[in-house]
Design brief:
By secondary structure, the chain is α/β, with parallel strands linked by helices. The protein has five helices and ten strands; from the N terminus they run βαβαβαβαββββββα. The protein is globular, with a radius of gyration of 16 Å. The two termini are 14 Å apart.
């Protein structure tokens, strides 16, 4: 199981989280978010271990801005949380890995994802809200049984030490990883390293159990 920690913005905290060796680290490039990385020096990200995939999170951003930030920070992945089309996703797929996020609820129609199958590398399933992520609430993971495509997916939204053990109960063949954010924070943009370390231990134990 892959682990992504999202919403980092302060250099010291970024380095602390990097020490846990997550598979992905996410950085919000959306100016309405309290986790927006507007003042983050690019060298902080470029100094991260090669094993960590640096992920930029965008919401309905222009191709020009996304391209400029990929080049500035050396992002390996972009995560698109807005109304980006399959064609928009495909534009970047040859340059970086592409995550496309969708807010899901009981009425979510997974058939709408078919048009994205050649345009993205992963889907990100989040709790549906009126805004763009950051609800701190989980969705009913049983909904994932309705997903029939071959594109692997992450789940996010409300994951915490109170429910992280239950992630092991998700047996979907395309379930690839988790995205940890607000429930592991001291305040927006600053992660609680002790809580993250505890979550990493639980999640990596589950991976080792599957391998054995």
């Amino acid at each position: 199981m892959k682990i992504k920690v999202c919403g980092l913005k302060h250099p010291e905290n970024i380095n602390q989280v990097a020490g846990l060796l997550p598979d992905y680290m996410g950085f919000i490039c959306y100016d309405l978010s309290p986790r927006f990385i507007s003042k983050l020096p690019s060298q902080v990200l470029k100094a991260l271990p090669d094993s960590v995939s640096k992920t930029a999170v965008f919401v309905n951003e222009t191709k020009e801005t996304i391209t400029n930030l990929i080049d500035r920070f050396g992002f390996d992945v972009i995560q698109l949380h807005g109304n980006e089309s399959p064609e928009f996703c495909m534009y970047f797929k040859q340059k970086v890995k592409v995550f496309k996020a969708f807010g899901v609820d009981e009425d979510f129609d997974f058939n709408q994802l078919i048009t994205y199958t050649n345009s993205v590398d992963f889907f990100m399933f989040d709790t549906k809200t009126e805004g763009h992520g950051g609800s701190g609430k989980t969705f009913n993971w049983e909904i994932l049984n309705n997903y029939k495509l071959d594109i692997p997916f992450f789940i996010c939204g409300g994951l915490s030490l109170n429910n992280i053990e239950k992630v092991k109960e998700i047996k979907h063949p395309q379930f690839y990883g988790v995205d940890l954010n607000s429930r592991f924070e001291v305040e927006p943009g600053i992660k609680d390293i002790n809580k993250l370390a505890a979550a990493f231990k639980i999640l990596r134990q589950s991976t080792d159990e599957v391998r054995s």
